Amino acid sequence: MHILEFEKPIAELEGKIEELRHLSDAGDVNIADEVSKLQAKVDKLLRSTYAKLTPWQKTQVARHPERPHALAYISTLIEDFTPLAGDRAFAEDQAIIGGLGRFRGRSVMVIGHEKGHDTESRLKHNFGMAKPEGYRKARRLMEMADHFQVPILTLVDTAGAYPGVDAEARGQAEAIARSIETCLDVRVPLISVIIGEGGSGGAIALATGNTVLMLEHAIYSVISPEGCASILWRSAENAKDAAEQLRLTAQDLHKLNIIDSVVPEPMGGAHRNTDLMMQTLSMAVESALRDLGGVEGGVLRARRREKFLEMGRAGLS
Amino acid sequence: MNWLTNLNETRRSLKERLVGLVAPKEVPDNLWHKCPGCGHMIFHRDLEKALNVCQHCGHHMRLSVKKRLGMLFDDGQFQRIELPKVPDDPLKFKDQKRYSDRLKDTRSKTGEVDAIVVAHGRMGGMNVVAACFNFDFQGGSMGIAVGEGIVAAAELAVLQDAPLIVIPASGGARMQEGILSLMQMARTTVAVDKVKEKRLPYIVLLTDPTTGGVSASFAMLGDIAIAEPGAVIGFAGARVIESTIREKLPEGFQKAEYLLEHGMVDMVVPRRDLRATMIRILSLLKNRGAAGDLVALPIDTPDSADQD
Ligand SMILES: [Zn+2]
Ligand SMILES: [Zn+2]
């Protein structure tokens, strides 16, 4: 497993356990005893470390290469997933994946940023950095969901929209603006989950849900800590300070009423117990969907618009 | 008040005489402007007359909010509206300097509360609401106050049954307001949609620069998108693209003309023609004439033709 800088003491203990296990022959009671003592120590350290992660540490966890990404959640939570491709104008962009499927029996439209998990898939998904065609596909799929009265689930996980010449030439700004507009316009339940990194405009393009959930160690910010530091501190070295100031953690955003609830992660982060993470998120999405069930489409739309129209004006604590 | 006016005039003429006596060759800098486009020195009065456009190369320099609004409305007359107060420095943000201090500095320097001015007045006799960015106020960046300005302008347009014109000049989000500045993208999108839902024209005049979160929300959602010549318009900053992606930027990249060529704006209009162009568009959309009425009638009152 990829070890983050602050996890090194934990990794050392885990290494020792591994060594002892190698030494022991099956019946050695002393070693088994030692192993279980060390394991308890690991758990305690993991718990205490993850209970008080700094914003900068959370940024590392949110970007952890083994953290489950959108396709992982889809393959576990969504049955009969049927990917749909293309913006019908220019191209297919795998940085945003989307399609129809079934969540606990009901049809849903799932749309999410996918970062990829190895070199090949990262290139295929362009590291989760979408181009205009990605946002235009998202818009097309949201409109389709609206047409067929199917709830929408968005999974947000991107460093940001792709900053490239071709993306600009094809209207990156317009594509994001229209995606936001469509999110705020549909008359079906829209649930957004920030599963990893919610990076700026490229993230909010898919994140204006009736209900916005955020995983415990995910981040959501107007700019990356590195980007902010290089502008305001004139050095990317100050990313840690920027992360503190930006208030990008799920806990802070909940206090600011930007998100509706924080979805707890397994001890040591989503990547340490993917199965448990899937179960927890499944329950959270189910309960959010149930809360919105039976609400008339026009009311769903009006409530969503009212909620975002008020952001910043009221509810600041 | 006469004595005061007189005193001031006396002082001024005295000062002018002194300047004339003491330093005849030291011309104050602000009398002459160097054109960033061609380097020509332009006398300030000539520049003002030409609406801050270089008469040598056509370069469009920034325009103050006051001049911008004055140039658009009939007889230069418009009425500013007071914007609701919003929380200052909601996150208590601090980099090398406190954001609250930065705000204080900019406020005293500009005499403005934040980076947006909302006004209403007449254009070609039609009542119009306009929201204009002030780039001198922290790069025209969008925080809660700017979002509030767009919301207020949109609500005023709906209330007055008037078209809305928004004139961005902004580097993007106000970073020091963190996530709250990001949320203004959604907020302003809902706001301008309210105008569109009422079928009132929403015109965006993209001026230099319109980038980041401002371009990726209300600024790209106009019914009509007009850009000023040479204005930089785009999502990602050119430097970010160059450094992270290591791509060579094409000639004229992210300039108004480039956007026109790529189908992202309706037209690029020189400053001197802006007012007339906007009035023409507004009139075409507002005063649709007999044909517009004929289309609407049968849908609303299917029986009316028989009765008459
Ligand atoms: Zn791609
Ligand atoms: Zn010039």
Automatic annotation (TrEMBL), chain A:
GO molecular function ontology, one term from the record: acetyl-CoA carboxylase activity
EC number of this enzyme: 2.1.3.15
SUPFAM superfamilies the UniProt entry points to: ClpP/crotonase
CoA carboxyltransferase C-terminal domain location: 41-291
Pathway where it operates: Lipid metabolism; malonyl-CoA biosynthesis; malonyl-CoA from acetyl-CoA: step 1/1
Broad class of enzyme this protein falls into: transferase
Reactions listed under catalytic activity: N(6)-carboxybiotinyl-L-lysyl-[protein] + acetyl-CoA = N(6)-biotinyl-L-lysyl-[protein] + malonyl-CoA
Cited InterPro entries: Acetyl_CoA_COase_a_su (IPR001095), ClpP/crotonase-like_dom_sf (IPR029045), COA_CT_C (IPR011763)
Localization: Cytoplasm
GO cellular component: acetyl-CoA carboxylase complex
Biological-process GO terms, alphabetical: fatty acid biosynthetic process; malonyl-CoA biosynthetic process
Role summary: Component of the acetyl coenzyme A carboxylase (ACC) complex. First, biotin carboxylase catalyzes the carboxylation of biotin on its carrier protein (BCCP) and then the CO(2) group is transferred by the carboxyltransferase to acetyl-CoA to form malonyl-CoA.
Quaternary organization: Acetyl-CoA carboxylase is a heterohexamer composed of biotin carboxyl carrier protein (AccB), biotin carboxylase (AccC) and two subunits each of ACCase subunit alpha (AccA) and ACCase subunit beta (AccD).
Family: Belongs to the AccA family.
Protein name: Acetyl-coenzyme A carboxylase carboxyl transferase subunit alpha
Organism, scientific name: Paramagnetospirillum caucaseum
The gene coding this protein: accA
Automatic annotation (TrEMBL), chain B:
Gene Ontology molecular function: acetyl-CoA carboxylase activity; ATP binding; carboxyl- or carbamoyltransferase activity; zinc ion binding
Domain of life: Bacteria
Residue intervals of the CoA carboxyltransferase N-terminal domain: 31-300
Location(s), subcellular: Cytoplasm
Zinc finger (C4-type): 35-57
Reactions accelerated catalytically: N(6)-carboxybiotinyl-L-lysyl-[protein] + acetyl-CoA = N(6)-biotinyl-L-lysyl-[protein] + malonyl-CoA
Pathway stated in the Swiss-Prot or TrEMBL entry: Lipid metabolism; malonyl-CoA biosynthesis; malonyl-CoA from acetyl-CoA: step 1/1
Transmembrane spans: none
Binding site for Zn(2+): 35, 38, 54, 57
SUPFAM superfamilies in UniProt: ClpP/crotonase (SSF52096)
Alphabetized UniProt keyword annotations: ATP-binding, Cytoplasm, Fatty acid biosynthesis, Fatty acid metabolism, Lipid biosynthesis, Lipid metabolism, Metal-binding, Nucleotide-binding, Transferase, Zinc, Zinc-finger
GO cellular component, one term: acetate CoA-transferase complex
Cofactor: Zn(2+)
The record's free-text note on cofactor binding: Binds 1 zinc ion per subunit.
Family that this chain belongs to: Belongs to the AccD/PCCB family.
Function according to Swiss-Prot or TrEMBL: Component of the acetyl coenzyme A carboxylase (ACC) complex. Biotin carboxylase (BC) catalyzes the carboxylation of biotin on its carrier protein (BCCP) and then the CO(2) group is transferred by the transcarboxylase to acetyl-CoA to form malonyl-CoA.
Protein name per UniProt: Acetyl-coenzyme A carboxylase carboxyl transferase subunit beta
Organism expressing this protein natively: Paramagnetospirillum caucaseum
Lineage, highest ranks first: Bacteria, Pseudomonadati, Pseudomonadota, Alphaproteobacteria, Rhodospirillales
Encoding gene, per UniProt annotation: accD
